[in-house]
Write a structure and sequence with these properties.
- The chain is mainly alpha-helical and about 325 residues long.
- It contains 15 helices and 2 strands.
- α5 crosses α8.
- The radius of gyration is 28 Å and the shape is flat.
């Protein structure tokens, strides 16, 4: 009988076992290397005067920086809402039985995921080169509203168009993957109860698919927050553009970039906390099972309080 089998038998008998992992010298080497690198980093940050921490402290709460951060948050929130709504529509179109709808949605996703976001932003900002005037009305009929494209496509509008349309393509694939993760029997059961397809999607499929949709959507929100820095090329007064304006005047590039990085880190950290609780809410039914898998010692301790060893082994 092997040692592993012996341990298993003794565990079935209800005896308390303490499993001690074998220590590896590589772990100690890794800890030493990381400690040395961390000490070098701290030493560089403290002793290198070129970081100009005094300038960082001076501009960290500057009014222009705060306004830029506020615009970054606004762009992120509005673009994500529009992108999620567009993604849901595109995902449903891709899963539709109509070949025209599914092909159109596929073409949209193919184009917007296949071209760089920066090119899309610049394209929307220069839309007036193709259409000097924009109008709203009946196709091939009378126009109700018309005006100059330059007056309508401001840097903020161009940023929203570029970010939300691009995000819609990615969200379409995320939502489609979430919908495909639900067993077909769920929709068949809803149809058997007389529910219409729209109600089945809203009341049965989407609530279950949210468990698979929420984590990548939260990651996309973090990416969107950082991708808003691209709108600085359009002249939109976001966080990065505000820091660029300041260091182009003071020539203090590094400390101002550190200020921007600290703001982005703070905002992404807040979003990460929200992501944690949101994911916890949607997988609350699995928390007990995951805790038992992640904390076997706690499970063994709880089992040790049972009345009989036979009950524990079962």
């Amino acid at each position: 009988m092997t040692a592993a089998t012996d341990r298993a038998v003794r565990a079935d008998d209800g005896e308390d076992l303490t499993v001690v992992p074998r220590r590896s010298p590589l772990n100690l080497v890794g800890i030493v290397v990381l400690a040395v690198l961390g000490a070098m980093l701290v030493h560089t940050l403290v002793t290198n005067d070129n970081f100009e921490w005094g300038v960082v402290k001076l501009y960290l709460n500057a009014e222009a920086i705060a306004k830029g951060a506020l615009l970054t948050v606004e762009l992120t929130a509005i673009s994500m809402v529009l992108g999620v709504l567009l993604g849901i529509v595109l995902a449903v179109m891709r899963l539709a039985r109509s070949r025209v709808l599914s092909t159109s949605a596929w073409a949209y996703v193919w184009f917007f995921r296949g071209t760089p976001l920066l090119i899309q932003l610049i394209f929307w900002f220069n839309l007036s080169a193709l259409f000097p005037r924009l109008s709203l009305g009946i196709p091939f009929g009378p126009e109700f509203v018309s005006g100059s494209a330059n007056a309508f496509i401001t840097p903020f509008v161009a940023a929203l168009l570029g970010l939300s349309l691009n995000e819609g393509a990615y969200m379409a694939e995320i939502v489609r993957g979430g919908l495909l993760s639900i067993d077909r029997g769920q929709s068949e059961a809803a149809q058997a109860l007389g529910m219409r397809p729209a109600k089945t999607l809203r009341r049965v499929i989407l609530p279950q698919a949210m468990r698979a949709i929420v984590p990548p959507t939260a990651n996309q929100t973090l990416s969107m927050l950082k991708n808003t820095s691209l709108v600085s090329v359009l002249g939109a007064a976001d966080l990065l553009h505000a820091t660029q304006i300041i260091y182009s005047r003071t020539y203090q590039t590094i400390p101002l970039l550190i200020v921007a990085a600290l703001w982005y880190l703070a905002m992404t950290s807040v979003l990460s906390v929200g992501q944690y609780y949101l994911e916890r809410f949607y997988r609350r039914g699995d928390l007990g099972a995951s805790r038992r898998r992640l904390f076997p010692r706690r499970r063994a301790a709880e089992a040790a309080g049972a009345d009989s060893p036979k009950e524990v082994s079962r």
